[in-house]
Structure formats: C-alpha cells, structure tokens
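Model: You mentioned two targets. I'll fold them one after the other.
Researcher: Yes, keep them separate.
Model: Target one:
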Amino acid sequence: MNYEIDMYLNDIAVIRLYGELDHHETEKIRTHISKTILQGNLNTIIWNLERLNFMDSSGVGLILGRMRELRAVNGQTIILNPSNTMKKIFQFSGLASFMLEGTEADAILHARGIVNG
C-alpha cells in the first residue's frame, strides 16, 4: 500500500491511496493525516480512490474518523472516484453524498464552492 498527500494553499489535502488498504496500513495513514489536520488550517480532505483496489472496514473507519476531526473545524470530505464495490460500501455507510466522480481539479473546485457547467 502506498499513499501520497498533496496540500493546496494549506487548506485542502488530496490523499491518493494505491493498492490495498487494510488495518495495518490504515494505522500509518491515520497518524499522518490526523497530525496534518491538527497542525493547521486544513478544512477539506479529498480522498482519491481511483487506484485503490481493495479496502476493508478499517478503511471506512479511517475516512469516517477524519470526517469527525474535520467537522470540529467545519471541514468537508470528498470521496473521489471510488470503485463500484466501494461505492456500495459508502452508500451503505451513509456516505453517498460525499462521493464525486471526476478529476482532482474538479474536486478542488467543488470544495471551494465553484461549480462548472
């Protein structure tokens, strides 16, 4: 499992997850992201799942936990390009309204309240 975090103007983090996300990998990512949230002005996390092949329940917990942390600062979460299987998991978890299909640039515009079209 690999992941990358890119920051945009210190308030948006794009997190790209690759491969498989299981309990062991979730712990590493959770620690890193929670520190990022606590350190500054972060108010949006965009989870780019385009290259994520597998996620167990700990992955859903990872996203839900960071959503709670962001809610404390009126932040928002975008789940970008989940697979069809992951879409079903997020729908059953009540997270369907946070899903978005498109590019990272689309998601950043969406986060900033800019709508194209």
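Model: Target two:
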Amino acid sequence: MRNSPRQKGESMYRLTAIYDHPSDPERFLTHYREVHAVLATKLPKLRNYEWGVTELPDGSKPAHFLVAVLDFDSKEDALAALQSSEGEAASADIANFTTPDAFQMSFSQVVKAA
C-alpha cells in the first residue's frame, strides 16, 4: 500500500463505505477486523485504507456503526481494483457480515486544500 503525502491541489479518488448498526456488533467487528479488512488491504493500487467505529461526543448513538475510506490515485485505479480478483473477493465477503440494505458506498474526487 502506497502512503505518500500529497501536495496542495493534488487529488485522489476515494471510496467511502458506511455501515449501519448491526444486530450483533461484536460479531460484525470480529469479522470486519479479521476477514474483511484483510481482504480490503489486498486491493491493487490501494493508496490508503482506514476504518473506524463511529461515536458522538455526547455519547448518544450515531447514525452509522462503521465508516471505512479507501484511497486510490485515480478513478481508473479504484474501478480496476474493484473489478480485480481481490476486489471481487472483498465484495463477495460483504454478505458474510452485513446485508445489502445495511451499507452504502460512495465515490469522490478528493482534493487536498491545505
């Protein structure tokens, strides 16, 4: 995984995955940490991968359970990674810990402002 600093104005392409609260948070986290995250780190041309369980400062329940961000140098790199055998394995694994209606994925061009 390449993890180099970006210069101001340089852009990258980001996949953001947002997961709803599961019925069994510990089971979800164990699978995510030990299986899904490992699969995601194998995506070709992945520049950076970070994930975390969400929380709110006041301790109330946030809208979502977990958010993951995966960064690539370009849209083409991201799409190729998702279509690779590694991407297909990660996509197929989603059914092992959540349901299609319990997560969202979005893509964005990210530009470093400072």
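Researcher: Noted. Anything on target two?
Model: Strands lie at 11-19, 46-53, 66-72, 103-111.
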